[in-house]
């Protein structure tokens, strides 16, 4: 018998059960010697087992003539050095015999010729410990636990990104979800679960969407994993799936006994390929090579170690192929962990690739002008982003693992505020090329593309259907978050480069534009159509979709919303709508959301701000219908409970029948999502949800001179993602027009790294963001006031400078 | 071999080497098998490691086989008879012997059994220095193997003593009393040191026998050879090698013909040889190198190496095998047989004898005459030897050869128990020469080094003599590892570097005899076993001193 | 001994009880590529090249470790087997120094044979960058682990056949290699220089120094101890260039010790006597055969009866027979002996 992690736990807790099981087994089989093979790393288990063995001998349960039965049996404890392969039964026997722990081929099976050539029966500690229970309570009792084919319980060592880690024993057939969320308490830090690796290092990696799988031998095998040694590692969004596969494979590569070719050399080559991918040196064919090698190893390896070693790679490719492709094609690691690709996680995570560490470092020494210049090397909207960016950078900030992430967004605002205009002196505008580009839409994508294309010497015209430019920055984001003068100022910089903005100009035909002298067109019309709930009474007066609501208010309409406003949804738009409603005179604003705050897509600080302003939140409810009575609306809701996890790693809401209840309101704002308005008239290939289909790498639409990007391609996303799309469009269009696509600039000199102030040790908390103290709800004044220069520098000094880490 | 001839009627290895693998127990005594007979040792190791045979090693020095041994009997040198008699006594006392076998196959048991009376375990322990417990364990392991039979393997470690013949007889007695002769996995198996020692004996290159161990003193065989050769033959015993030097000193031998041997280094009390050979009127040496002996010759005849000749050799398990010519001889060197025949013909002519005696077309023709005159080789012919060779006795052309001797019946009829008693070696340490020297071989060199010293790699692996000395003795003598020491006996003195090791017990030093620079045999004694005339090379008294 | 009937590649095959599938196939003339199987060694199953498909057995078992069973249906070739074998050979080649032309085992290398058989003609995996030190410490052979395929034959023959156990697998995973205790040079290990590892090594990892290809091999018997091992002398021109254990010899079954395998060098030694020598004025001087033989015959004839001969335990039976016949028949004495006692 062998004892690994959970076996050690059993041995620490109930060594007598194990011994009793072995005695019973030995009596049935006629065995005279028993061995417990246990890793020397479990000294407590070894000690307790030895104590229990001594007690058993003293009481005559072991040794000669046990209880007068003339049956002799003795148990010896063998301490192994912890080689992983010694979990394989033939290697385990070799180890007990005093030889190198190397497996051999079966047959002969241990039952025919095992230890020292004698028939040998090998079982897990858990199995032996179950024997007395089964004898005592009967086989039917035991068979009653678990599933049809997998009887009894499974023991898992639950670890990783899970609130409660430790050993878990559940009946076979329990779902992964019950284990991870029910017992494990879910994922800490508000992160999303990404995958679960079951079966230890040679098990498989199952994606979040398979969390509803029941855990039993057959189901796991079907999904590409195994029960294995009972390991269960939970990983969240901060884990790179390629890196994870590499980690597990490195382990099996090292633990390979080295005997057979496929295991020893195959895992080595696979690991090499994974290394190259995580360094950004991968090729797309590598993915197929990994699968081919994996299959060869599985088919040809001598023992189960090799036979299962490729599992993590094969399953991660099966379930997360796009993440491999991102590493290979875009040199992008979405979890920002692959050292070869990621200089600093913040800048790696920034869709626009802003050199965050550099501008933070400049801010830390008060050089805000240079700091601003660094930001402007990539984006034309520092002040906007300094206020409204959803800052994915901060979620990966290493400082966040200490106390809070560096306020990268706050520092951007500081740079914009204190950075002056010196950046402009260094900006480079190429001589005119004589080529003309039309940009349809003046949102962040369109304006960014226009900005860069203008600097490349192209003549750019921006067509905007709305009366004012800015797209969602103006129409979607309320002024109390983004003051209009700030936006105007940054748009004016773009116009100053020669880009012409024509408002109230809706384009209906791309062909007309192209015939009219434009050499290329960039479609960036956004996603301005609200989604419907699809419930009865949705069209009643007083029900308004969030996009329309915000647009009308932001364009200056004085809307009457009544006393009570209910907002359906959980995104930033829902938050913005509720806070806007309060400013329009509503006395109560309530957000109803189908899941819990943990699953809400809205930014945490936005939710906090809304709550601070008095917005109420009702979780785990879904709209059923809207009724109108006496001019008042009534929204009927159904209570939900959280169910299985969906593809985004969030738990689904599942309605509980019979829990309907109404809430009354004057205005009902539906903020459950938005999509592009119909672009059929433009004659472009349509994707899901009204989006336009383009080549993912170049943003070029099928056929000729048309490019598209931003929300109209991706569906509703963020300002920074739209800016990133604008940059890509500028690159592609410049190349299309004969340029080299080089839109990067160096606006600030590289700083002397030797001149840096030393890193300050110890805990340092993020300074509180100054905000309006009074009159918050009176008008649309900006709430947050931004850091003062000193506070900003202090905050910047919290940066751990992980980009400077030596390898 | 005389010991086995006395007891069994035939003095050779009873079982094939490969058959050692079938033994259930093995007693390896006086043989450092892994170094002196490495491939024979493989069968022993396989028997132990792969088939679970019990291994008893009797050797005063730690040898590699001790690693695999169940019991290691570290008896003092020169106490083998006591040791073997002691084992036999325990076997009798504990009833571990094979009564049926003894009754049906042997004679003189009672007298022998009686002779063992004084060899009680306690007495033997006192003589040999081996504990009673080890004696008993060894006796039981040998007498009652878990499976199969028990084999005895020995080599020069028990024969190169003044009591060598007694030692061999004692092993034979032990094998008979346990019913281990004439069976697979059993037997008494002397391992011969050189490629054709067995053949040289078989061919009558001994002073007392014609080919096939037909005694020169017996009239019938003598008549047979006289008739076959057409010359009168002497019925007097000739001189053994060790006696020849004395005869040279006395003027009884005036001329010598030495074929491919180097007695100047190989013989005990080698200085004696060095002194005597020049006294000859005429010395011919036929060899492939100018050996230390050849340097003393009046005529040196350049012969052929094994790779340049065709003929047969007989290995230690009595297997006659073909040696085939692979390459041409260098320069004017000639095939040994051709030289010998030429010398014989010319000499015969000068003496007016018939040259026709040596009118052979080649070695194959010589073998035809051997077969005709040697019953045990009666069926041997080059054409029959093929890949497998033939093990004698092979009396007729149809006979398949005899892998195991004494099956069902001893060569002499009944196996004869012969009482032998423990006698001290001829020379024991005293105040002047307080240490006991024992000699042996190394894996990497061979014999007097004539051949192996001329293989650069072998000489690199073992370039010089190292005197093995126990740490306790080295401390007492103030000798450190690697330091040169002088080893002297009553007969001579040599210098070599010390190797401090507990492979040898305190009081004993060990040397090989492979190096002309360190001619160990100037130290050893020429004391002989009275029967076999073997020199007592395994025991002599020496002193060791630091040099410089 | 009972026989077993099985089907291999659609052919009905008869095998002996106890044979592996590989042995049965090879005996029936069906080749299955293999690198670690050896008739003298116990089944090991490391290289996996001899994988086959067996009805009723999961996966691709190595035929060298599967006992032939009655009624077994085996396929030695299929697209899956071919692909898998190609991958395995490619993996080995990636980890193998590629200086074939300069390698002592060129043209007799099992890895080359396997690569040719499975059809690997180009590099699929990047070449290994690690360089392991070459152990040149033994005078007779060189250990170059950069060419090792870890078939384990050397380790197994050293342990199973020679019973020495000087070398073993050390380290784990990719770092696994053949090494000695504490990774000391082979010369400082338990190694007895028998060269069996070199003889078994299917690639250039263990090679005899100064190896040359022989023009022919001659069967004979070793000239050293009394065991009488069967030898195949490798000959090139008039020189012995190597010795090989004769697997057909019942004595050694292919095994040899250090002297048997490497001790032939004296045959070609410059010290060999090439002309007769006669002592003139106290000095040995070269002479003609006729002169020497006449002198010998004359002097011996003078001393008839006062003569002694020392025969040789290194010479043949025929040589010795003639010498004793001469001594007894011509020199009229029984004074003939040899070094039997040492």
The low-confidence runs of chain B, each spanning 5 or more residues with pLDDT under 50, are: none
Largest interface: B-C, 157 and 109 residues
Number of helices of chain A: 30
Question: Average pLDDT across residues of chain A?
Answer: 90
Structural class of chain B: alpha/beta
Overview of this protein structure:
The complex is a heterotrimer of chains A (807), B (548) and C (342). Chain A is 37% helix and 15% strand. Chain A has 807 residues and is of the alpha/beta class. The two termini of chain A are 44 Å apart. The model of chain A has no long low-confidence stretch (mean pLDDT 90). By secondary structure, chain B is α/β, with parallel strands linked by helices. Chain B has three domains: 2-191, Dimethylsulfoxide Reductase, domain 2; 197-391, Rossmann fold; 435-546, Barwin-like endoglucanases, CATH 2.40.40. Chain B is built from 20 helices and 21 strands. The two termini of chain B are 44 Å apart. Chain C has helices at residues 21-27, 79-94, 110-118, 153-161, 196-200, 258-262, 289-302, 317-330; strands at 3-8, 11-16, 53-54, 73-75, 141-143, 167-170, 177-180, 206-208, 216-221, 230-236, 239-245, 277-280, 283-286, 307-310, 336-337. In chain C, β10 (230-236) and β11 (239-245) form a beta hairpin. Among the domains of chain C are: 3-118, Ubiquitin-like (UB roll) (Roll), CATH 3.10.20.740; 212-272, Single Sheet (N-terminal domain of TfIIb); 303-337, no CATH class. Chain C is α+β, with helices and mostly antiparallel strands and 342 residues long. Helices cover 23% and strands 19% of the residues of chain C. At the B-C interface, α3, α11, α13, β9 and β10 of B face β9, β10, α6, β12 and α7 of C. β9 (255-259) of chain B pairs parallel with β14 (307-310) of chain C.
């Amino acid at each position: 018998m062998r004892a690994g992690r959970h076996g050690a736990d059993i041995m620490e807790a109930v060594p007598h059960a194990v011994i009793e099981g072995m005695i019973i087994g030995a009596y049935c089989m006629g065995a005279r010697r028993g061995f417990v093979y246990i890793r020397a790393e479990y000294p407590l288990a070894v000690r307790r087992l030895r104590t229990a063995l001594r007690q058993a001998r003293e009481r005559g349960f072991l040794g000669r003539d046990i209880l007068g039965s003339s049956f002799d049996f003795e148990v010896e404890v063998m301490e192994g050095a912890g080689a992983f392969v010694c979990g394989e039964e033939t290697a385990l026997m070799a180890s007990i015999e005093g030889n190198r722990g190397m497996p051999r081929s079966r047959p002969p099976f241990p039952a025919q010729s095992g230890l020292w050539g004698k028939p040998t029966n090998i079982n897990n500690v858990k199995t032996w410990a179950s024997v007395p229970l089964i004898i005592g309570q009967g086989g039917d009792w035991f068979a009653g636990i678990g599933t049809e084919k997998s009887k009894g319980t499974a023991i898992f060592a639950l670890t990783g990104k899970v609130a409660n880690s430790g050993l878990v024993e559940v009946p076979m057939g329990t779902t992964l979800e019950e284990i991870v969320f029910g017992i494990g308490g879910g994922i800490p830090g508000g992160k999303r679960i990404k995958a679960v690796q079951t079966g230890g290092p040679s098990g498989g990696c199952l994606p979040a969407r398979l969390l509803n799988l029941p855990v039993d031998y057959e189901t796991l095998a079907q999904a590409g994993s195994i029960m294995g040694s009972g390991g269960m590692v939970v990983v969240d969004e901060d884990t790179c799936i390629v890196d994870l596969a590499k980690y597990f494979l490195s382990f099996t590569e090292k633990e390979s006994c080295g005997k057979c070719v496929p295991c020893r050399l195959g895992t080595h080559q696979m690991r090499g390929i994974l290394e190259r991918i995580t360094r950004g040196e991968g090729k797309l064919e590598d993915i197929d090579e990994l699968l081919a090698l994996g299959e060869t190893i599985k088919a040809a390896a001598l023992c189960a170690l090799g036979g299962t070693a490729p599992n993590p790679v094969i399953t991660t490719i099966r379930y997360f192929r796009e993440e491999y492709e991102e590493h290979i094609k875009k040199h992008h690691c979405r979890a920002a962990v692959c050292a070869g690709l990621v200089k600093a996680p913040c800048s790696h995570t920034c869709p626009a690739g802003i050199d965050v560490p550099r501008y933070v470092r400049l801010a830390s020494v008060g050089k805000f002008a240079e700091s601003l210049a660094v930001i402007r090397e990539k984006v034309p909207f520092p002040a906007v982003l300094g206020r409204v960016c959803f800052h994915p950078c901060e979620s990966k900030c290493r400082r966040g693992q200490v106390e809070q992430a560096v306020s990268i967004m706050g520092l951007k605002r500081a740079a914009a505020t204190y950075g002056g205009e010196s950046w402009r002196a260094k900006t480079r505008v190429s001589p005119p090329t004589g080529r003309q580009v039309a940009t349809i839409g003046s949102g962040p994508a369109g304006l960014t593309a226009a900005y860069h294309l203008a600097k490349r010497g192209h003549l750019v015209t921006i067509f905007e259907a709305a009366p004012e430019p800015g797209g969602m920055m103006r129409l979607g984001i309320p002024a109390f978050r983004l003051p209009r003068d700030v936006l105007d100022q940054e748009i004016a910089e773009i116009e100053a480069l020669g880009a012409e903005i024509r408002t109230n100009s809706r384009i209906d035909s791309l062909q007309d534009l192209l015939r009219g002298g434009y050499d290329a067109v960039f479609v960036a019309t956004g996603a301005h159509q609200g989604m419907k709930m699809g419930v009865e009474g949705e069209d009643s007066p007083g029900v308004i979709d969030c996009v329309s609501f915000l647009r009308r208010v932001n364009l200056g309409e004085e809307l009457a919303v009544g006393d009570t406003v209910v907002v359906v949804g959980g995104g930033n738009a829902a938050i913005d709508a509720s806070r806007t409603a309060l400013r329009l005179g509503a006395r109560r604003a309530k957000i109803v959301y189908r899941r819990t705050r943990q699953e809400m897509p809205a930014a945490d600080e936005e939710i906090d701000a809304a709550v601070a302003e008095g917005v109420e939140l009702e979780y785990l409810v879904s709209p059923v219908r809207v009724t109108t009575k006496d001019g008042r609306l009534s929204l009927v809701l159904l209570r939900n409970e959280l169910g299985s996890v969906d593809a985004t790693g969030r738990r689904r809401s599942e309605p509980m029948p019979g829990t309907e209840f109404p809430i009354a309101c004057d205005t009902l704002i539906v903020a459950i999502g938005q999509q592009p308005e119909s672009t059929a008239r433009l004659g472009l290939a349509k994707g899901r949800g009204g989006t336009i289909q383009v080549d993912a790498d170049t943003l070029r639409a099928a056929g000729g001179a048309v490019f598209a990007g931003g929300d109209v391609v991706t569906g509703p996303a963020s300002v920074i993602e739209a800016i990133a799309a604008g940059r890509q469009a500028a690159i592609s269009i410049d190349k299309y027009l004969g340029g080299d696509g080089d839109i990067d600039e160096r606006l600030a000199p590289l700083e002397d790294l030797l001149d840096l102030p030393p890193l300050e040790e110890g805990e340092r908390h993020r300074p509180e963001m100054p905000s309006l103290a009074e009159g918050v709800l009176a008008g649309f004044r900006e709430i947050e006031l931004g850091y003062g220069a000193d506070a900003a520098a202090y905050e910047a000094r919290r940066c751990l400078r992980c980009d400077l880490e030596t390898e | 071999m005389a010991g086995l001839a006395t007891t069994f009627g035939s003095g050779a290895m009873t079982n094939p080497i490969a058959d050692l693998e079938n033994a259930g127990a093995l007693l390896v005594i006086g043989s450092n098998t892994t170094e002196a007979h490495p491939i024979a040792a493989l069968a022993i190791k396989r028997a132990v490691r792969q088939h679970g045979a019990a291994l008893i090693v009797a050797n005063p020095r730690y040898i590699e086989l001790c690693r695999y041994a169940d019991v290691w009997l570290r008896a003092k040198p020169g106490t083998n008879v006591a040791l073997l008699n002691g084992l036999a006594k325990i076997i009798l006392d504990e009833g571990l012997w094979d009564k049926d076998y003894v009754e049906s196959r042997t004679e003189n048991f009672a007298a022998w059994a009686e002779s063992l009376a004084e060899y009680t375990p306690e007495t033997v322990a006192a003589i040999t220095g081996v504990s009673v417990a080890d004696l008993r364990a060894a006796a039981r392991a040998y007498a009652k193997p878990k499976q199969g039979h028990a084999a005895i393997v020995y080599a020069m470690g028990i024969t190169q003593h003044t009591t060598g013949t007694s030692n061999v007889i004692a092993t034979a007695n032990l094998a008979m009393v346990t019913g281990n002769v004439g069976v697979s996995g059993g037997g008494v198996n002397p391992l011969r040191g050189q490629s054709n020692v067995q053949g040289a004996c078989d061919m009558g290159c001994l002073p007392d026998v014609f080919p096939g161990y037909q005694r020169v003193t017996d009239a019938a065989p003598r008549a047979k050879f006289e008739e076959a050769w057409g010359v009168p033959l002497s019925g007097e015993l000739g001189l053994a090698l060790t006696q020849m030097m004395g005869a040279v000193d006395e003027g009884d031998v005036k001329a010598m013909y030495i074929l491919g041997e180097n007695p100047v280094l190989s013989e005990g009390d080698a200085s004696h040889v060095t002194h005597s050979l020049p006294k000859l009127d005429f010395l011919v040496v036929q060899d492939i190198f100018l050996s230390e002996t050849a340097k003393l010759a009046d005529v040196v005849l350049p012969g052929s190496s094994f790779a340049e000749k065709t003929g047969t050799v007989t290995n230690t398990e009595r297997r006659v095998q073909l040696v085939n010519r692979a390459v041409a001889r260098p320069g004017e060197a000639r095939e040994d047989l051709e030289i010998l025949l030429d010398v014989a013909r010319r000499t015969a002519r000068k003496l007016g004898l018939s040259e026709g005696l040596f009118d052979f077309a080649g070695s194959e023709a010589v073998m035809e005459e051997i077969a005709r005159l040697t019953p045990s080789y009666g069926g041997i012919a080059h054409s029959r030897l093929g890949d497998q060779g033939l093990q004698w006795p092979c009396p007729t052309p149809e006979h398949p050869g005899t892998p195991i001797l004494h099956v069902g019946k001893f060569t002499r009829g009944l196996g004869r128990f012969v009482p032998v008693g423990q006698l001290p070696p001829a020379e024991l340490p005293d105040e002047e020469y307080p240490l006991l020297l024992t000699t042996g071989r190394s894996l990497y060199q061979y014999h007097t080094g004539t051949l192996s010293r001329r293989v650069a790699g072998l000489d690199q692996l073992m370039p010089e003599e190292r005197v093995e000395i126990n740490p306790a003795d080295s401390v007492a003598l103030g000798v450190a590892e690697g330091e040169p020491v002088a080893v002297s006996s009553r007969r001579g003195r040599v210098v070599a570097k010390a190797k401090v090791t507990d492979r040898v017990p305190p009081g004993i030093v060990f040397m090989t005899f492979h190096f002309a620079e360190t001619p160990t045999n100037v130290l050893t004694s020429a004391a002989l076993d009275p029967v076999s005339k073997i020199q007592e090379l395994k025991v002599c008294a020496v002193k060791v001193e630091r040099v410089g | 001994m009972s026989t077993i009937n099985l089907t291999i590649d659609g052919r009905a095959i008869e095998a002996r009880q106890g044979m592996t599938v590989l042995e049965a196939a090879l005996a029936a003339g069906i080749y299955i590529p293999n690198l670690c199987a050896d008739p003298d060694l116990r089944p090991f199953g490391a290289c996996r090249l001899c994988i086959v498909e067996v009805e009723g057995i999961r996966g691709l078992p190595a035929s060298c470790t599967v006992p032939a069973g009655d009624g077994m249906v085996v396929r030695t070739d299929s697209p899956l087997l071919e692909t898998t074998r190609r991958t395995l050979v490619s993996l080995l080649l990636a980890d193998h120094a590629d200086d074939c032309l300069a390698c002592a085992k060129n043209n007799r290398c099992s890895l080359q044979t396997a690569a040719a058989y499975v059809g690997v003609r180009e590099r699929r995996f990047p070449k290994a960058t690690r360089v392991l030190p070459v152990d040149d410490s033994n005078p007779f052979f060189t250990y170059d682990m950069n060419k090792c395929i870890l078939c384990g034959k050397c380790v197994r023959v050293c342990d199973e056949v020679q019973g020495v156990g000087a070398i073993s697998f050390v380290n784990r995973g990719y770092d696994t290699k053949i090494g000695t205790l504490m990774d000391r040079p082979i010369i400082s290990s338990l190694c007895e220089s028998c060269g069996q590892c070199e003889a078994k090594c299917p690639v250039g990892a263990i090679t005899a120094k100064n190896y040359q290809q022989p023009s022919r091999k001659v069967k004979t018997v070793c000239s050293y101890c009394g065991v009488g091992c069967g030898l195949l002398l490798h000959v090139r021109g008039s020189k012995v260039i190597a010795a090989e254990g004769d697997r057909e010899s019942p004595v050694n079954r292919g095994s040899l010790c250090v002297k048997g395998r490497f001790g032939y060098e004296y045959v070609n030694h410059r010290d060999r006597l090439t002309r007769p020598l006669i002592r003139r004025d106290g000095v040995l001087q070269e002479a003609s055969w006729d002169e020497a033989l006449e002198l010998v015959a004359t002097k011996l004839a003078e001393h008839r009866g006062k003569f002694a001969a020392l025969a040789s335990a290194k010479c043949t039976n025929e040589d010795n027979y003639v010498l004793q016949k001469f001594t007894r028949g011509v020199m009229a004495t029984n004074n003939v002996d040899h070094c039997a006692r040492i």
